[in-house]
């Protein structure tokens, strides 16, 4: 089993609220990722990080922001939630150098519903 | 055109059948390739990496054809527990010089008794 955790697992929240989705891993991986996945659809990369103080936007535009202050922690924040943000958010981590790509380990995901 | 394309299925097969999934990718600079498995309402988990020479893991065989930009997964002697969505993942060069993974939409497999 991968040592990567996400909280909360489920979140129902009203429009306009600020939310932070937590992701942490204990494997010492430098690379971390956030994906968004709607039911029956592909995963879309929205943010990634190669290490502390490194964050990049993925191929899907997102209104969320991320931070990487500690290796093990990669939280995602939505300043003002909207119904269009309703989705599943999956966090992942992997080993490897910047130009390399190793196996990704996924957390269990957070299912977000914005009313 | 999507960067990674898969036949969404579903593939509905009896136990014991052999089934093959295909995946094509558009980024010729892609470096590494994987098959992941995702069960309903669960996170993806690595099934196997795909190597240029082809590789096998038990009942699963993966092939890569760089010239045709094509990846395949063969499952022999299907089990009920193989029912899941199989995701093709390609690590491609993004703007800025970094490699990021791109997931296909997945192929759904249903194995019935």
Describe what you observe in this structure:
- With 115 residues, chain A is mostly beta strands.
- Helices cover 0% and strands 48% of the residues of chain A.
- In chain A, strands 2, 4, 5, 6, 9, 10 and 11 form a seven-stranded mixed sheet that branches.
- In chain A, strand 4 and strand 5 form a beta hairpin.
- Chain B has 113 residues and is mostly beta strands.
- In chain B, the strands form two sheets. In chain B, strands 2, 4, 5, 9, 10 and 11 form a six-stranded mixed sheet that branches. In chain B, strands 1-3-8-7-6 form a five-stranded antiparallel sheet, with no helix packed on it.
- In chain B, a hairpin with a 4-residue loop joins strand 7 (60-65) and strand 8.
- In chain B, 35% of the residues are buried.
Tally the helices of chain A: 0
The largest β sheet of chain A comes out as:
7 strands, mixed
The helix-and-strand class of chain B reads mainly beta
Number of helices of chain B: 0
Proportion of residues in β-strands of chain A: over 45%
Helix content of chain A: under 10%
N-to-C span of chain A: 34 Å
Shape of chain A: globular
Strand content of chain B: over 45%
Give the largest interface pair and sizes.
A-B, 24 and 25 residues
Nearest-angstrom radius of gyration of chain A?
13 Å
* Structural classification of chain A: mainly beta
Report how far the terminal alpha carbons of chain B are from each other. Answer: 37 Å
